[in-house]
């Protein structure tokens, strides 16, 4: 009962602290009167700036069904658990030669990996404490500019209109990721902060389709509010693929905006991913030998990261469109009229 009372108080505080956006000065690319103050304030939700990792084989704090955000950079695999991201929302990391920020919004269920080299300057990202369409607004610490996570652009400040470079990720369960990349490194709970990791901070928010903490406009009701979908954005055409379409695991060859895409997904293994087709023919689904997820008629084996690991094109890295998982309502709000696969 104590936890329920505390949660209710927190939600009421967050809601009634809205209304005055307290924005940076200057032009906004989004309606300033719909930018809400989430309550904790700037850096009140602290980013993880010195991430610590544990070998996958040594991880004991994750259940098989726990969601993680996975990334592979130059052969190095890392996973960032939702149970940590729920409390921090941004992890500033270095993977090989790449400087990357894993940005995650628990209220829209969206994770996007941004390059931290912006305008030829290296920066870190922090949580501004502000929300638009209930979605995270990060700020960069180099210029104090504000960014839209789902909108994928800078919406206020010195870097206004700048578009971040995106790194491909896969959101899936810990069991699936561990099977794909058993040598992965996993962000651990040694964040430098004391948080109740594993205790979801927003109550029944994920499962309650009627519950949104902040205003969202427009509301698109073609799918259930919090149905998990992969949003694929590009070439002036946008489309979502619901995880429910993959109740039977399948590989789809689709065309979006004149570009041929390969979409692979499995609801039971809880992932969907997308690649640009770069000359592969006779593609078939192959989930029997992770991280391989597909093969083509020439024997090319495509891994979940897009790397072709065997066959005539071995060593080729398939390009990926801008794509990430999220709750349906968030794509409907940020990309009004977005197409839904099979509708």
What is the global morphology? globular
Radius of gyration: 20 Å
Q: What is the count of helical runs?
A: 4
N- to C-terminal distance: 44 Å
Percentage of helical residues? Answer: 10-25%
Question: Can you give the mean pLDDT?
Answer: 93
Strand-residue proportion: 35-45%
Count of spatially separate domains: 2
Given the helix and strand composition, which structural class is it?
Answer: mainly beta
Largest sheet: 5 strands, mixed
Number of DSSP-assigned strands: 27
For the biggest β-sheet, the strand order reads 2-16-4-3-15
Stretches with pLDDT under 50, minimum 5 residues? 1-23
Describe this protein's structure.
With 343 residues, the protein is mainly beta. It folds into 2 domains: 186 residues, no CATH class; 113 residues, Rieske Iron-sulfur Protein. The strands form 8 sheets. The protein has a 5-stranded mixed beta sheet with strand order 2-16-4-3-15. The chain has a 4-stranded antiparallel beta sheet with strand order 5-6-7-14. The protein has a 4-stranded mixed beta sheet with strand order 26-17-18-27. The longest helix has 15 residues. The N terminus is likely disordered.
Which terms would index this structure?
343 residues, mainly beta, Rieske Iron-sulfur Protein, 5-stranded mixed sheet, 4-stranded antiparallel sheet, 10% helix, globular
Topology:
Layout: H1 2-16, E1 35-37, E2 53-55, E3 67-73, E4 76-81, H2 82-88, E5 90-95, E6 98-105, E7 110-115, E8 117-118, E9 121-122, E10 125-132, E11 135-140, E12 146-148, E13 153-156, E14 166-167, E15 170-173, H3 174-180, E16 185-187, E17 228-234, E18 237-242, E19 250-256, E20 259-266, E21 271-276, E22 284-289, E23 292-295, E24 301-303, E25 308-310, E26 322-327, H4 328-334, E27 339-340
Parallel strand pairs: 4-16, 18-27
Antiparallel strand pairs: 1-10, 2-16, 3-4, 3-15, 5-6, 6-7, 7-14, 8-9, 10-11, 12-13, 17-18, 17-26, 19-20, 20-21, 22-23, 23-24, 24-25
């Amino acid at each position: 009962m104590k936890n329920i009372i505390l949660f209710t108080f927190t939600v009421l505080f967050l809601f009634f602290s809205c209304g005055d956006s307290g924005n940076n000065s200057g032009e906004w690319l989004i309606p300033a009167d719909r930018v809400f103050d989430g309550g904790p304030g700037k850096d009140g939700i602290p980013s993880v700036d010195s991430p610590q990792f544990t070998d996958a084989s040594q991880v004991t704090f994750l259940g098989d069904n726990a969601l993680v955000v996975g990334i592979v950079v130059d052969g190095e695999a890392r996973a960032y658990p939702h149970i940590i991201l729920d409390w921090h929302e941004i992890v500033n990391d270095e993977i090989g030669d790449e400087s990357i920020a894993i940005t995650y919004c628990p209220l829209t269920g969206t994770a996007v990996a941004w390059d931290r080299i912006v305008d030829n300057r290296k920066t870190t990202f922090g949580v501004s404490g502000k929300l638009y369409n209930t979605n995270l607004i990060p700020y960069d610490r180099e210029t104090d500019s504000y960014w839209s996570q789902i909108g994928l652009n800078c919406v206020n400040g010195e870097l206004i209109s700048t578009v971040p470079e995106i790194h491909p990720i896969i959101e899936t369960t810990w069991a699936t990721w561990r099977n794909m990349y058993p040598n992965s490194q996993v962000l651990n709970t040694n964040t430098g902060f004391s948080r109740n990791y594993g205790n979801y901070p927003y109550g029944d928010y994920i499962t309650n389709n009627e519950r949104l903490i902040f205003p969202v406009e427009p509301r698109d009701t073609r799918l259930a509010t919090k149905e998990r979908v992969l949003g694929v954005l590009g070439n002036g055409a946008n489309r979502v693929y619901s995880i429910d379409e993959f109740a039977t695991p399948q590989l789809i060859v689709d065309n979006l905006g004149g570009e041929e895409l390969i979409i692979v997904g499995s609801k039971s293994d809880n992932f969907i991913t997308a690649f640009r087709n770069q000359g592969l023919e006779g593609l078939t689904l192959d989930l029997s030998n992770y991280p391989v997820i597909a093969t083509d008629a020439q024997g090319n084996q495509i891994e979940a990261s897009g790397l072709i690991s065997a066959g005539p094109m071995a060593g080729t890295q398939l390009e990926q469109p801008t794509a990430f998982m999220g709750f349906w309502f968030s794509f409907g709000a940020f990309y009004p009229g977005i197409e839904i696969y099979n509708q």
